[in-house]
Design a protein that fits this description.
Structural class: alpha/beta
Radius of gyration: 16 Å
Shape: globular
Low-confidence stretches: none
Number of helices: 5
Strand order of the largest sheet: 3-2-1-4-5-6
Strand content: 15-25%
Number of strands: 6
Distance between the termini: 29 Å
Order of helices and strands: EHEHEHEHEHE
Largest sheet: 6 strands, parallel
Length: 185
């Protein structure tokens, strides 16, 4: 299937590793894409944006600085994207935390690890479902949600994500939901 023009991709999580690789692959395989990078490291995002422009000069890269362990920030990011986009074709989420603390409570009352590995992921997809659904209804368009989480960490979050995306896939058959949990990357 040929990827349509003006494809919108949202990449949430670390500004290195698998998310960076997926973002660059997306840029190489699309025509005139708009790419949102959501994360905390603006310097790394600027470097990635320059590299993406070399791979695909027609791409537009937008960095949104946010601590996505806070659901209020997730909501704000989604509202910003929704104010600019009618459709989102690709949502790629790799938020996570490797910490040996038993609990790192955030100002909203949730544990940072669980917020990054489950709550914020589900919030992103729920908030952007209208735009993913709109993309799924366009002819020759794509609508994909991909999430990656370390297999050996946060096993309970992996299971919760599996069940959540399985249910979302039943409710939204036009969007492909993929949850991957490889070993350490």
């Amino acid at each position: 299937m040929a990827v349509p023009l003006d494809t919108v991709g949202v990449f949430v999580g670390g500004t290195a590793g698998i998310r960076e690789f997926a973002l660059k692959a997306f840029a190489q395989r699309t025509t005139d894409p708009k790419i949102y990078i959501v994360g905390r490291n603006g310097t790394a995002a600027a470097t990635i944006a320059e590299q993406v422009k070399e791979l695909n000069p027609e791409s537009e890269v937008v960095f949104i600085k946010a601590d996505t362990s806070l659901l209020a920030n997730v909501d704000a990011v989604c509202k910003e994207i929704q104010s600019k986009e009618d459709m989102v074709n690709f949502l790629f989420v790799t938020t996570g935390s490797v910490s040996f603390k038993s609990r790192d409570e955030k100002s909203e009352g949730s544990d940072r690890k669980l917020s990054l590995t489950y709550y914020s992921r589900m919030r992103f997809v729920h908030n952007l479902l209208p735009e993913l659904t709109a993309a799924s209804k366009e002819p020759n368009s794509l609508s994909r949600m991909v999430t990656v989480l370390l297999r050996n960490c946060h096993y309970h979050a992996n299971v919760m994500n599996d069940f959540g995306y399985e249910e979302l896939a039943k409710q939204h058959p036009g969007t492909a939901f993929v949850h991957l949990f490889p070993g350490y990357a």
